[in-house]
Amino acid sequence: MRHRSMLAGASAALALFAAVPALAETPADVAAAPPAAAVQASDAFDYRDMISANRLADPQVSPDGRRVVYAVTATDVATNKRAGALYIMDLRDGGEGRKLAISEGGANTARWGSDGRLYFLSGRSGSSQVWRADADGTNPVQVTDLALDVNAYRLSPGADRVAVSLAVFPECGDIACTVDRTRAVADDPSTGQVYDRMFVRHWDTWNDGTQNHLFVQSIGADGRATGQPVHVTRGFDGDTPSKPFGDESEFTFAPDGRSIVFSARLAGPSEPWSTNFDLWRTNGLTGDGAFENLTDDNDAWDTGPVFSPDGRTMAYRAMARPGFEADKYAIFLRDVATGRTRQIAADWDRSADSLQWSADGNTVYVTAGDVGQTRIFAIDTRNGAVVPVTGPGHVSAFAQTPSGFVFAQDSLTRPSELYVKTFRGREMPRRITNVNPQLDGQVFGEPEQFSFAGWNGETVHGYVIKPAGYVEGRKYPVAFLIHGGPQGSFGNSWSYRWNPETYAGAGYAVVMIDFHGSTGYGQAFTDSISQHWGDRPFEDLQKGWAAAQERYGFLDGDNACALGASYGGYMVNWIAGAWPGEFKCLVNHDGVFDTFGMGYSTEELWFTEWENGGTPWDNPRAYQEFNPANHVRNWRDPMLVIQGDLDYRIPTAQGLSTFTALQRRGVDSRLVFFPNENHWVLKPANSLQWHTEVFGWLDKYLKPAP
Q1: Which of 69, 252, 274, 337 lies deepest, with the highest CB count within 10 Å?
Q2: Would you say residue 16 has pLDDT above 50?
Q3: By the 8 A CB rule, do 626 and 533 touch?
Q4: DSSP 103-116
C-alpha cells in the first residue's frame, strides 16, 4: 500500500505566487516556535496555507555547473487547478530564481542535454511533447511531434537522440494504429470491457489494453526530431516505465548511445502477485524484438540503472526477496564488458531510494531514510564506506555541481526549498530559494523527536509537536496521527496531505509514532510488521502514547482523537475494536475494514500475500487473525470515514463496510465520499473540503462548544 485534505472559503481565490524572491541562509531543520506572546491566531499556519503553498521540485544543474533549473507548482483553489512552471538560477552570482518564458502553456521535466541546451515537456502544442530551448530558456523548438502524449523521455549521451515512453497497444505495428484503435473504442456505443487476465485495474485506472513502450527518434541540428520513431521495445510484453508511478529513472541509454537499458516486469498472468522487475537491454535501436535480461538471476525487484562517467560500470538498485515491495534496496555494480556484478555497502542497513555517480566514478551518492530523516549519503565504490552528506530534514532530490550539491529539502516546518552544500564541507547547508515567502511570518508548532521501549523492548521513535502559540503550563487536545504503508514513516518531512503542522496550527498537540514496520530504522525493523499488523505495531502505539503523555505534560491524554489513512486507517479500525474508549473520536481515510476481503479485491496481490504469508485460501487464519471486521461488536467510538471511489488499492467496499458497521451499531459516524479521488485526495477543492470535515470532526469532540 506504500504507493508508494472545508467548505468555508472554498470559493475564495488563493494567490498564485509567480515570483521566487530573495535568498535565505537557514537550514531546512526543525525550527523552534517563537515565544507564545508573539503568536496571534492569524499568524498560525493552517491547512489553507498548506493547500495554497508553492511546491518546489526537480532541481537540474547544467553541464557547466553554472545554472540550476527547478520546477515550482502553484495552486489556485478557486479554479481547482495547479500550474507548473520552470525557474532558472545562476549559481555563481547568488541571484534570485527567474521564471522561464517557456513555462507559458505549461512546462515540466526539464533536463539538460550534453549540448548545453535545455529540454522539457510541454503541452503547448495540444499534447505533451519534448521541447528544446537555449541554456537561458529562450528560443524554444518543438522536438517531437507525435500523435500520442509523451509520458517520459531520456536524451542520449550525445543529445542526438531522444527516447520517449508512449502508451500504445503493443500489438500495433505503428503509432497510427494505436490512435485509430483509441478512436474506435471512443466511438463504439457499447461500453463492456472484457478481460482474460489481471491486472483488470491498477491504482485508479481500469486497464485499457495499452502498455508504456519506448520509441527512439534522432534529433536534427535544428532541434527537431527526424524520421519515423523506432519502436525499440516492440515485442516486449510489459510496461516501460511501469504503471502507475514509473518515470525516466527506469530507462536510460547505454554509454555509447546504441542501446537502451530499462526496468520492466513481464505482463503475464502472474503480474499482480509478482515483483520480478528485471533490467533488460535492447538489441541496438532497431526494434527487432530481441532483448537481453541482465538480472535474470534475481527474481525480486531490479531498477534504476545508472552508468558511470567512463561508461564501464552500471549501478542499480535491487531487492532480494520476491513478492516483497518493502525489501531493502541494495546497491549493485555491474561491469559492462564482462557482466560481473558485485554489491557494495552490503552491511549498510538502509534502503537506497536513488543513485548518482560522482564525476570521478569513485563514489555513488544515494538518498535513504534514516531515523526520521532522509539524507544524502556518499558510498565509496572501492571499499563500501558510507558517509552522510546532509543532516536533519528530508532530501527529495539532488544534483551535483563542480563544488558540491544543489538539493531540494523540506522538513516538518518548511516545504521544499533549494540548498547548496560542498562535497566535503561540514558547513550548514545554505538556502538559495524562498518560493513561499508568505510562510516566513507564520507560526509553526515546535517538533521534538523522542524514543521509548516498544515491542520486544526495542527502541521506537516518534515525534511530538507542540501547538502553535504553545503556552507553558497549559494542556492541549491531541491529534494522534498514524502513518500508512505500513512500511512508511512520519518523520521530519513536509506533506501536502497529512501535514501535522496543520493540526498544531489549529491548537492541537500532535503525537506520531514510527512503529515496528516503519522505514529508516533497519530492514529487520521494517520486516517485523509482516503477519503482525495488529500486535507489534499496536503495542508500539500503546506504549508510545503512554510514553508521550508521561514525558510531555501539556498533552491532554483524556482529550485526544486518533487519525490515519491506508494502513493508518486499518489501525484506526483495529483500535476501535481492540482499544475502545481510549480516544474521544477516530478518523479513518481509505482504511482496511476486512483483511480477508482485501485479499480478493485489491489489485497488487503481492502486497496482501506477503503481509499475510500466502493467499486467503492457503492461509485464511493469517487474514483473520488481525481482521477489524471480527471485532465490530466492540466498536463505540465516534468515527469519521473518508473514501475515494477511484481507490483500487483499498476499494470503496472497505470504506462502505466501515460506515455500515458503525451505523448499524448506532455509533456516531459520518461518511465523506469523493467520487473523483483515488487513494489520495489531490484536487485542491477536495483537499479543502477534506480538511474542513476532519477539523470539524476533531473540534466537535475535542473542543465542544460551551
Answers
A1: 69
A2: no
A3: yes
A4: GTT--EEEEE-TTS
Distance separating alpha carbons of residues 496 and 47, to the nearest angstrom: 9
Q: Answer for the pair 16, 79: CB distance below 8 angstroms, yes or no.
A: no
Looking at residue 34, what DSSP letter applies? P
Q: How many whole angstroms separate alpha carbon 129 and alpha carbon 123?
A: 6
**Which residue blocks in 255-366 are alpha helix, DSSP H?**
none
Average pLDDT (121-146) is 97
* Cα gap 372→349, rounded to integer Å: 15
Residue 442 identity: Q
Q: What whole-number distance in Å separates Cα of residue 281 and Cα of residue 267?
A: 17
Residue 183 pLDDT greater than 90, yes or no? yes
**Whole-number percent of the chain with pLDDT over 70:** 94
Average pLDDT on 467-472 reads 97
Tell me the three cell numbers of residue 341: 556484478
| CA pair distance 341, 356, nearest whole angstrom | 18
Per-residue b or e along 372-400, where b marks 16 or more CB atoms closer than 10 Å to that residue's CB:
bbbbbbbbebeeeeeeebbebbbbbbbbb
Cis peptide before 244 (omega within 30 of 0): yes
Section 492-503 average pLDDT: 98
List 361's β-bridge partners, or say none. Answer: none
Nearest-5° Cα angle at 360, 358 to 364: 30
- Residue whose C-alpha cell is 543532516: 391
Q: The C-alpha cell of 264 is what?
A: 520492466
Cβ(608)–Cβ(594) under 8 Å?
no
Q: What percent of the chain has pLDDT over 90?
A: 92
Question: Cα separation of 686 and 80, whole Å?
Answer: 9
Mean pLDDT over residues 216-231, rounded? 97
What does the pLDDT look like over 70-92, one tens digit per residue? 999 999 999 999 999 999 999 99
Alpha carbon separation from 523 to 328, 343, 351, 370, 526 (Å, rounded): 6, 17, 8, 11, 5
Query: Looking at the predicted structure, is the pLDDT value of residue 659 above 50?
Result: yes
Report the alpha-carbon distance of residue 103 to residue 71 in Å, rounded: 10
Q: What would the pLDDT profile of 567-586 be if each residue is shown by its tens digit? A: 999 999 999 999 999 999 99
Q: Is 137 buried (19+), middle (13-18) or exposed (0-12) by CB count in 10 A?
A: buried
Checking if the pLDDT of 133 tops 60, the result is yes
